[in-house]
């Protein structure tokens, strides 16, 4: 039987497949300089040469976003490692896609729960098997739809101990959700004392230079045509207010310049500073 890849599956999200390709590209082209993921290529079922060729043919198109994808994953997993040091033993990856952390989890005492649509998870588990990988005992899959607003009940039914702290990873999802779904997700996080979340958000279009805004608008049209429209954007002030309403305190809000400094990348030019932010936030202490 011919092996089905992420791009060929009718069950797969084209944007999730694109993010998975960029994680793999970072391993091949950049040597995983920012983010090491030894399973990124295996789970896709592609040969490294395809990714090298893509990077050579379209360097201006893939490089900035590739490095951002690598940076946000590294930030999330660094923050997770610190949370484990503090005693957190549960990780929930919201909208996991083809993320491989649950397969290479270095913390034997930490249980990982992947949350995504049932169709996505079925396809991913097929890809895991096709890659000759095992599903670790500490990995669980929980199927849900974020737009239903039932995340807390779904997590509890799926085995998450809601009386104990949880570390949430929520990357590449918020822009696709409306305000109600975002509020429901943040309320779920905030209701679990001692919990923490890492997520990314996109800034309003007026934040970009004219040339960059045109490119962003073109990408927005492209993903909307594929049924995955970008819905929500926030300014840093609006994001701070949103999290405060839900009882979450921002520990870090990293823009492009801050991420570049963190990973030794060049300072962005003045007209290229706008872009997605990565946030680390914790449930606020009472009082």
UniProtKB/TrEMBL annotation:
Instruction: Give the EC class as a word.
Output: transferase
Pfam families assigned to the protein according to its UniProt record, in alphabetical order: LCM
Entry superkingdom: Bacteria
Per the record's keyword annotation, is Repressor included, yes or no? Answer: no
Q: Which InterPro entries match?
A: Ppm1/Ppm2/Tcmp (IPR007213), SAM-dependent_MTases_sf (IPR029063), SAM_mthyl_Trfase_ML2640-like (IPR011610)
The protein, known as: S-adenosyl-L-methionine-dependent methyltransferase
Which keywords are on file for this protein? Methyltransferase, S-adenosyl-L-methionine, Transferase
Question: What GO molecular function terms would the record report?
Answer: methyltransferase activity
Q: Which Gene3D superfamilies match?
A: Vaccinia Virus protein VP39 (3.40.50.150)
EC number(s) stated in the UniProt entry for this protein: 2.1.1.-
What is this protein's function per UniProt? Answer: Exhibits S-adenosyl-L-methionine-dependent methyltransferase activity.
Sections of the chain in a coiled coil = none
Q: Mind listing the GO biological process terms from this record?
A: methylation
């Amino acid at each position: 039987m011919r092996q089905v890849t992420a791009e060929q599956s009718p069950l797969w999200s084209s944007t999730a497949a694109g993010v998975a390709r960029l994680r793999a590209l970072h391993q091949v082209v950049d040597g995983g300089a920012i983010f090491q993921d030894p399973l990124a290529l295996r789970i896709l079922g592609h040969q490294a040469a395809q990714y090298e060729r893509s990077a050579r043919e379209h360097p201006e198109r893939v490089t900035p976003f590739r490095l951002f994808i690598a940076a946000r994953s590294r930030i999330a997993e660094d923050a997770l490692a610190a949370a484990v040091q503090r005693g957190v033993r549960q990780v929930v990856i919201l909208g996991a896609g083809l993320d491989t952390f649950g397969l290479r989890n270095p913390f034997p005492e930490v249980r990982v729960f992947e949350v995504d649509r049932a169709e996505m998870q079925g396809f991913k588990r097929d890809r895991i098997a096709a890659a000759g990988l095992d599903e670790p005992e500490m990995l669980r899959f929980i199927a849900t739809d974020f737009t239903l607003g039932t995340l807390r009940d779904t997590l509890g039914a799926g085995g998450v101990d809601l009386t104990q702290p949880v570390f949430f990873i929520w990357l590449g999802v918020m822009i696709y959700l409306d305000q109600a779904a975002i509020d429901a997700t943040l309320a779920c996080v905030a209701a679990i004392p001692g919990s923490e979340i890492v997520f990314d958000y996109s800034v309003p279009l007026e934040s970009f230079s004219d040339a960059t805004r045109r490119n962003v608008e073109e990408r927005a049209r492209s993903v909307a045509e594929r049924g995955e429209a970008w819905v929500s954007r926030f300014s840093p002030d609006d994001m701070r207010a949103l999290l405060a309403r839900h009882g979450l305190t921002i520990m870090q809000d990293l823009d492009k310049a801050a991420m570049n400094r963190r990973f030794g990348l060049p300072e962005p030019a003045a007209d290229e500073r706008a872009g997605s932010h990565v946030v680390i936030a914790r449930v606020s202490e009472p009082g």
